[in-house]
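**Tokenised fold:**
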Amino acid sequence: MAGQTNCYAAISRFYVFVYRTEAGRVIRVMLVDDHEIVRAGFRRLLDSSPDISVVCEASTGEQAIDSYQQHDPDLIIMDLSMPPGTGGLEAIQRIRSLNADAKILVLTVQECEPYPSRVMDAGAKGYLTKRCAPEELIAAVQSVAAGDEYVADDIKKQLASNNDTQLNSLTKRELQIFTLLASGQSASQISESMYISPKTVHAHRANILNKLGLDKTADIIHLGIRHGIVDP
């Protein structure tokens, strides 16, 4: 019986090893939360998954930025509420300025707008509340690490409603240009396809950015993806 148990244990370890190597390297995660006991709980949960490993932690926004540069994690789980200083949203923006491809999953108690919109516009790839099930957190980490977005269903509904309101402020022509910009077309390409001057395209682009409260074309692309107008 003991030999059989040892055999099963060996087989189990073998399959874990095969799973890790064939599926790719383990997802290296940084935890950012100002409460140590919260980080400890999340670390235990995440480390229970064979394809996830918590490699570093931070309790402030500044520590998060420093730790990101030092450890280069695959994914960051970020709280929004931080001690006075650099907050979660600012930390997201600064980390994204260091690496535009940084994968950040927000895990917060903030369940209502404007937080989800601001966070996703800042470049986060996922948004969960701390009421989520343990299984959903694991699924979100795996999804974001794979390059997808993961947003809790109730948050997704808020974002969709907010996006509809935003886009309804655009004229028919502005919505056409918004869609083309979101798909990655340049001003010159749009001017050719719509038979208007590049100057007119730039004017419409400026109006679109102003109406939607955006800063740059990259924000238009991100909003287009989030709204389902274009594919990621």
In short: Residues 2-23 form the longest helix (22 residues).
